[in-house]
Design brief:
Layout (H helix, E strand, L loop, with lengths): L1 E9 L2 E15 L2 E12 L12 E5 L4 E9 L12 E4 L5 E7 L1 H12 L2 H8 L9 H14 L4 H8 L5 H5 L8 H11 L3 H16 L5 E10 L26 E8 L5 E8 L8 H12 L5 E4 L6 H9 L5 E5 L2 H12 L4 E4 L2 E8 L2 E8 H27 L4 H14 L1 H4 L2 E4 L7 H4 L1 E4 L1 H10 L2 E6 L6 H9 L2 H13 L10 H25 L8 H8 L3 E8 L5 E7 L4 H9 L11 E2 L10
Parallel strand pairs: 4-21, 5-6, 8-11, 11-12
Antiparallel strand pairs: 1-2, 2-3, 4-5, 7-19, 8-9, 9-10, 12-18, 13-14, 14-15, 15-18, 16-17, 19-20, 20-21
Helix pairs in contact: 1-3, 1-19, 3-6, 3-18, 6-18, 7-18, 11-12
Length: 594
């Protein structure tokens, strides 16, 4: 990198502007120059009418003051004796490169949701001057941009980011104990935040809340201490395939567009079928009674709760999947019903029942996917059985290896009949297997097909099917929470901080959803993570210019946005803020590198 000056004539006068540029290889051994930082105009004339000043914060006087900058190789004009400063351009140094662009975008999303105003009312500064709302904003932006532990935020990430510049804070903001103490203060405002977010979704994107998606997931803990029965950390069915770890269950409610409306943290051994009634009451208490439509997977509602939903006033509508056992009971009646096309490759059969409607759907895409998965599993299991027949195993070791194969290929295992050896016989002499063709034919008939159940009896089948496939939104929400925002695993030891950790991840997900909603009409294939990664390439540096009087002029500058950045800024209707004002150190004072 090096300094470069360019001239521009304006009003009959020559103005010289200074930039930091770098040479970049563009192929075939050629180099092009790219502007990295714009430093502004430095006076190169002794004529008073041409002199320009800038506002600089004087660390000695602790106030801003106008200064006129002149190169060190030019004599300071007499008229600038009181406010002129000569800078040594050739002694320029670059300090503290830090990530700025993604931090700025995250803070913009935070303010767009009105979270700065929301928390300003509920998290006042402490008597010692600790700004809790800025600590929370840092925790949320950190979770969105580069998630990790609070210890990593304290020791590494904050110093490598520009959050201090954006919030006008210093390193003391992320003192380790302050981060944990902030988690202790936020959870009590969860219900109020749900109401605030609902209004913001409606104001920003015109969101509607007649259709709600509900599902549950689990997240685990690496530690395994002994917990009391009242503790939410318990063993249970693990969707993360970590049954060896204690966990908590998270129930989430979102709209079809993905806007989160509410969530709840439940004990890790909670059964899905016991949660729906409490969530129905929770939404009704917070947002009032209304004719809402609930979309759920087959394992959540019970017959008793569905009956309560049908008899409520006003009625609560539902559209849920059904267990395969119910399909067996209705199979004969469905055979007589005609197929109706709802879209290319998707057909449905409609079967009215008492106050309900059953929709039997088949999808060609889903059929090909499930059939390929079944064939792949069956081929692999068949090959494994052939290998076991060639091994010299006793009965006990054979059973162990069969159990391993069953856990690896559960879908194919149900289609094969196995002849197990007698306990006293040699395993290889009596072990056999054969394909159960009747079960295979039954599996083929059900591949790509599923049965839905609803009390929306007056709706068209195509509309109901479109409703149901929106459940992929909540699956995507869980995937973003667990993978992109690194919700799991959880390392906190105190139960209320575990819930606060999930609460911070939920707020970060709200920023993620806001960015995705803004991108959707512009570029549906562009993900929030890709945009954050692109903006993360905009860095901030401190440019140090020694002066001839022993001081140092410091210009904190974010790097010049490239073409991709400018396109995103234009499409998202965003404007980068002005560069931070310069600072000048006191005479003889050593500069801190933090």
């Amino acid at each position: 990198m090096f300094l470069k000056c360019h001239s521009r004539f304006k009003d009959g006068k020559e103005h010289r502007y200074w930039n930091i540029v770098e040479n970049r290889r563009c192929g075939r051994g050629k180099f092009v120059q790219r502007q990295v930082l714009y430093l502004g105009e430095i006076n190169d004339s002794q004529r008073e009418s041409w002199c320009r000043t800038i506002e600089v914060f004087d660390e000695n006087r602790e106030r801003t003051m106008p200064l006129a900058l002149f190169p060190a190789d030019r004599q300071l004009p007499n008229f600038a004796a009181g406010f002129g400063v000569q800078v040594r351009l050739k002694a320029m140094e670059l300090h503290r490169p830090r990530q700025w662009g993604a931090c700025w975008l995250a803070c913009h999303l935070y303010e767009q949701l009105g979270l700065d105003e929301f928390w300003a009312e509920r998290l006042p500064d402490s008597r010692e001057g600790t700004c809790w709302q800025h600590i929370l904003q840092t925790l949320v932006c950190y979770r969105l941009i580069d998630p990790g532990s609070e210890w990593r935020l304290h020791r590494q990430w904050f110093e490598q980011s520009a959050m201090a510049d954006l919030l006008d804070e210093d390193y003391s903001l992320v003192e380790k104990n302050s981060l944990y103490r902030c988690l202790d203060k936020v959870l009590q405002h969860k219900e109020q935040l749900f109401g605030h977010l609902r209004q913001r979704w409606q104001d920003l994107f015109g969101a509607r809340f007649e259709v709600l998606l509900y599902d549950l997931t689990s997240t685990y803990f690496e530690s395994d201490p002994v917990f009391e029965e009242t503790d939410k950390r318990q063993f249970g069915y693990s969707r993360d395939k970590r049954s060896d770890c204690v966990q908590v269950v998270i129930g989430l409610i979102i709209t079809p567009e993905g806007f989160p409306l509410a969530y709840e943290v439940l004990p890790g051994n909670t059964s899905d079928r016991t949660t729906l009634r409490d969530f129905l009451r929770k939404i009704e208490e917070q947002y009032g009674k209304a004719e809402r439509i609930w979309l759920m997977d087959r394992g959540i509602p019970t017959e008793e709760v569905l009956a309560e939903m049908r008899s409520s006033d006003p009625p609560i509508y539902y559209l849920v999947g059904t267990p395969k056992g119910r399909l067996s009971k209705l199979e004969e009646a469905l055979l007589e019903r005609p197929w109706q096309s709802v879209r290319p490759g998707v057909e449905v059969k409609v079967l009215p029942q008492e106050n309900e409607l059953y929709i039997f759907a088949q999808s060609q895409d889903r059929l090909h996917k499930e059939r390929a998965m079944r064939r792949r599993q069956l081929k692999a299991l068949w090959k494994r059985f052939g290998q076991l027949q060639q091994m010299k195993l006793n009965a006990r070791n054979l059973l162990l290896k069969l159990g391993e194969a069953k856990g690896r290929y559960p879908a194919a295992w149900r289609l094969i009949d196995i002849q197990l050896p007698e306990p006293t016989a040699e395993a290889n002499s009596t072990f056999g297997f054969a394909l159960n063709r009747q079960k295979l034919r039954q599996a083929r008939r059900r591949e790509g097909r599923y049965l839905l159940r609803t009390n929306l009896c007056g709706r068209e089948p195509a509309e109901l099917w479109e409703f149901y496939i929106q459940l992929v939104e909540i699956e995507a929400a869980f995937k973003n929470l667990k993978d992109d925002l690194a919700l799991r695993p959880i390392f906190h030891q105190l139960e209320h901080r575990i819930e606060a950790h999930i609460f911070v991840a939920f707020i970060a997900y709200c920023l993620h959803v806001t960015l995705r909603a803004r991108l959707r009409p512009l570029a549906p294939g562009l993900t929030p993570r890709a945009v954050l990664d692109k903006f993360a390439t905009i860095q901030m540096l401190d440019v140090h210019f020694p002066t001839t009087d022993g001081r140092t002029l410091i210009l904190s500058r974010y790097t010049h946005p490239e073409a991709d950045h400018r396109i995103l800024l234009e499409q998202l209707k965003l404007t980068l803020p002005a560069q931070p004002p310069p600072r000048i150190s006191s005479r003889g004072k050593l500069l801190s590198q933090t």
